[in-house]
Structures are given as C-alpha cells and as structure tokens.
Amino acid sequence: MMPSVSVMLAAAALIVLMPRPLSQAVDKRELDQRVRSFLDRHRNDWHDLNVPEVDGRTLHELVLKHRYQRAVEIGTSTGHSGIWIAWALSQTGGKLVTIDIDARRHAIAIANFREAGLAEHIDARLGDAHEIVPRLEGPIDFVFSDADKEWYARYLEALWPKLRPGGCFTAHNVSSPGMNGISEFLTRVRALPDGDTTIDTSSSAGISITYKRPR
Asked: DSSP labels for 5-63?
C-alpha cells in the first residue's frame, strides 16, 4: 500500500528539520580553523597589490550577511581578498571566480588558496579580464573589482546586467578620485537607476558598495 500524502509530508518535514551530520559540522570547524591559522601566519605578507585585512573582513562580512553564492573577483593578486571572499562562500555553499593576468601572482595565489584549504571553493583563471569578464555567465551575486582602474566602468557595464536583484558590486581604491578611471566609475555607478551606492572607508583605500535594487 502506498503511504498517505500526510505521512509523506511528515517524513519530508522530518528530513528538513534534522540537524547536519556531525561530520559536516566538524569539517566546517576544521576549515575555519585552517583559514584562521593561515591568515594569522601570513598577516604581514600581503604587500603585492593586495587589500588590507580590514577590507578583506568587509568583503567577507558582505558575502556572509547576504548569503551570496556566485562571486567574481577581478584582480586576484596573490590571493588575500580571494581568501576572505572564498572563506565566506565556503559557509554559503558558493564559489568564487577570480581573474588575474600576471602568471607569477596567479601561481602564488593558487598555492595560497591550497594552503588555506579553500581551493575547492575557487576557480582561479589566468588571463585578460578585458576578455574574460564579458564572457562570464550570470546570474552573479557578488563582484569585487580590484584590477585596472581605468576599466572599472567597463567591468560595471559588463557585469551589472548579470547581477541578480539584491546582488552587490564592490570596487577597491575608490577613495583616490585622482586615480585614472575612478571618477568615471563613481559617476557611472552612482547614476545607476537601480543601484544604491555607499563608500566604506574602513581603510584609506575605500570600497564602493553598490546593491542592485529588486525590480
């Protein structure tokens, strides 16, 4: 005899309410400890076009707060910001696509991602972001732009239509309006009819944070 609909619904509800297996909880704690240990060991090593720790924490918190899963980073450098973003994505079930054109920095970043235990949450691509970014498929939840400033506006143009409502486009070094491309980018991003922009000044570099309003 087939089980009744009420019995099947009750069984499904029980499955949903069941806690995660202990092994998953342990694995998550182990990964968190591994990432923290990695960041502590390398706290003073991020000198090659990397973000400061306070900005890494800001990116991490944005991803966690909104439970983003599909993230893009333009400008990997040696991986500091990517580690903060991917660490958050490891908790939301997401993945980061990060792009850099410099083979040396790309290789160092991959080694860092592996040492931190986050390689499975990162798709690190070596190549020209001018070509790769327009080909990325949507929808995308989160973008961090930290490459060539004069192309910031073009990266925004390429990815904003693919950003889902509620998603977030962030950009680094926006507190330096005299830097090539920054003023143009800020003018464009602030003029978006469906965007709301604030500037986080936790560091002197500054991060613009633009949320895409729901339709």
From this structure: HHHHHHHHHHHHHSPPPHHHHHHHHHHHHHHHHHHHHTTT---SSPPPHHHHHHHHHHH
Six token digits for residue 28: 């998550």
pLDDT in tens, 9-55: 444 444 444 455 555 666 889 999 999 999 999 999 998 889 999 99
Task: Assess if residue 2 is contained within a domain.
Answer: no
Q: For the full predicted model, state whether its pTM sits above 0.85.
A: yes
Count of structural domains within the chain: 1
The domain that holds 75 is classified in CATH as: 3.40.50.150
Phi, psi (deg, nearest 5) at residue 139? -75, 155
> Alpha helix (H) ranges present in 46-181?
53-66, 80-92, 103-116, 129-135, 152-159
Coil vs helix vs strand at 159: helix
CB 173 within 8 A of CB 182: yes
Sign of CA dihedral 55, 56, 59, 62: negative
